[in-house]
Amino acid sequence: MTKDTAGLSTSRTLWELVERRARLTPDGRALLQDDRVLTFGGLRDRAERTAAGLWRMGVRPGTVVAWQLPTRIETVVLSLALARVGAVQTPVIPFHRDRETRFALRESRAAFFAVPGEWRGFDHTAMAARLGARGVFEAYAELPDGDPSVLPPPPASGTEVRWIYWTSGTTADPSGVLHTDRSLLAGGSCLAHALRPTADDVGSIAFPFAHIGGPDYLVMLLLYGFPAVLLERFALPGSLDAYRRHGVTIAGGSTAFYSLFLAEQRTLPPGERLIPTLRLLAGGGAPKPPELYHAVVRELGCRLTHGYGMTEVPMITMGSPDDTPEQLAHTEGRPPAGMDVRIVDGEIRLRGEAVCRGYLDPARTAEAFDADGYLRTGDLGHLTESGHLVVTGRVKDIIIRKGENISAKEIENLLHEIPGVRDAAVIGLPDAVRGERVCAVVEGGEGLTLETVTTHLRAAGLAPHKLPEQLELVETLPRNETLQKVLKYKLREQYDTHRG
After folding, report:
1. Which is nearest to 54 in space by CA: 136, 143, 185, 119?
2. Closest C-alpha to 453, from 437, 468, 473, 465
3. Where is the signal peptide (predicted)?
């Protein structure tokens, strides 16, 4: 970390970090989209003018403002403008429709709602009207504008709840997660200091900025003073032009993104690199099979560092380029200073500044934290002697077959080694004799049979009691729209013959 960056790390609020970066490198590129470039100085100035426009509309410190916007320069500006005012903002993933959006607006009691108008064939303004949303305004190409001289001083404290994020949708009902500027700054700092970018790097935000990863990445840009390419929609091969044109050096998003890059690389002639400038893939959001790590390094010709985070704690651990290949392939990295990781009965529990303040629902908050103030993650894992965290699965992903505990993740990692398997999810299904039976749902894998799968797993050393009794081949696994996380509850609903 440079001396300048160390100073930026002491920022108390997100807006204070914006101002410090703008003073340090006002002409440095911050956000790149298509042919547009916004500098750090320009980002501060536009956000202040937008904050003044919001003030004129009646937005005040503590006012709840929901926004459902795609990943655009204007979205980042609006979010920072709300931070400048001291409003409470609740980002909503732009792919969400009436049910999820109604839930977020109702539970947060949003007084204003920013929408993109008609976007990708869907009319968000009309949906807002259907839902009876208050204070609806469009914020796609144009933003509220005003004279910054009308604004009061920016918030001085970063410890008040000013962010309501929504759990990513791997369960049927979302929950509002309460964050402060300080918790988001702590999460972004973990990401930044692990990856060790430089001002010469060019990053990319190809996932929804409304995801908790949005401020994570933004904090990294502000700390290290390098730009990021913004993509409203990530799709290959269409998105490759933006990566190549802007010379992206750091890309990623989640495990699904790595797989998509790999699949596209395999369509090219030997020796031709998919993104010639790419030096690092980095991400999180879903487990990373070791074989996928090795394939990325071998075929894409770059490093891969994977991390572990959740809506409640935006960054818990992160792999570093200085880690060994063994650590990068088999762990999720180390926690930063200030992140206290405790393993209780196999479950990962967390305490530290990056941990959320709880949930909108007080009952959910009471359930989520133990008597010592540690957040119960619901994830299973252990720490290595070097302090790296190994995530072995979810509590609910433990399949109990004839009284024996079976880790779904262990089987999934081995399934990824089978040629032709693009992704795999292992679930437990109710069984009258066994209690639960092991079902493997495989994406791709044309021609695979249960016999060939079990033969491979036996050869890999998997214990016989862990072998799947059911195999389902699918073209595409169900995923959420943010980091493409597999929705196992939908698979359980689909293949549970005892339902109904």
Report:
1. 143
2. 468
3. none
DSSP string covering 95-144, please?
T--HHHHHHHHHHHT-SEEEE-SEETTEEHHHHHHHTT-SSEEE-SS---
The amino acid present at 484, given as its one-letter code, is Q
pLDDT of residue 327 exceeding 60: yes
Coil, helix or strand at residue 364: helix
Residue 74 amino acid letter: E
Q: What is the pLDDT of residues 108-134, one digit of tens each?
A: 999 999 999 999 999 999 999 999 999
Mean pLDDT of 375-395: 92
Residue 397 to residue 244: CA distance in whole angstroms = 39
Pairing of strands 313-318, 118-119: unpaired
Annotate 45-101 with DSSP letters as a single string: HHHHHHHHHHHHHT--TT-EEEE---S-HHHHHHHHHHHHHT-EEEE--TT--HHHH
Structure confidence by residue, pLDDT tens digits, 201-216 = 999 999 999 999 999 9
Which homologous superfamily is 1-395 in? ANL, N-terminal domain (3.40.50.12780)
**pLDDT classification of 171: cutoffs 50, 70, 90:** very low
Report H helices in 131-239.
181-195, 213-224
Same fold, 1-395 and 402-495: no
Look up the pTM and report it.
0.85
In this prediction, residue 400 has a pLDDT band, given cuts at 50, 70 and 90, of: confident
Candidates 3.40.50.300, 3.10.20.30, 3.40.190.10, 3.30.300.30; correct CATH number of 402-495? 3.30.300.30
Q: Which two tokens stand for residue 302?
A: 């770059």
Tens-digit pLDDT profile for residues 278-300: 999 999 877 788 999 999 999 99
CA 87 to CA 60: how far, in whole Å? 6
Residue 434: partners with Cβ closer than 8 Å, 6 or more residues away:
401, 402, 469
Residue-range domain boundaries for the chain: 1-395, 402-495
What is the rounded distance in angstroms from the CA atom of residue 99 to the CA atom of residue 101? 6
Alpha-carbon distance of 60 to 37, in angstroms, equals: 30
Task: Quote the radius of gyration of the chain (alpha carbons, Å).
Answer: 23
Helix boundaries (H) for 275-404: 290-295, 325-330, 362-368
**Which of 159, 155, 98 is closest to 126 using CA atoms?**
98
3-class DSSP assignment, residue 11: coil
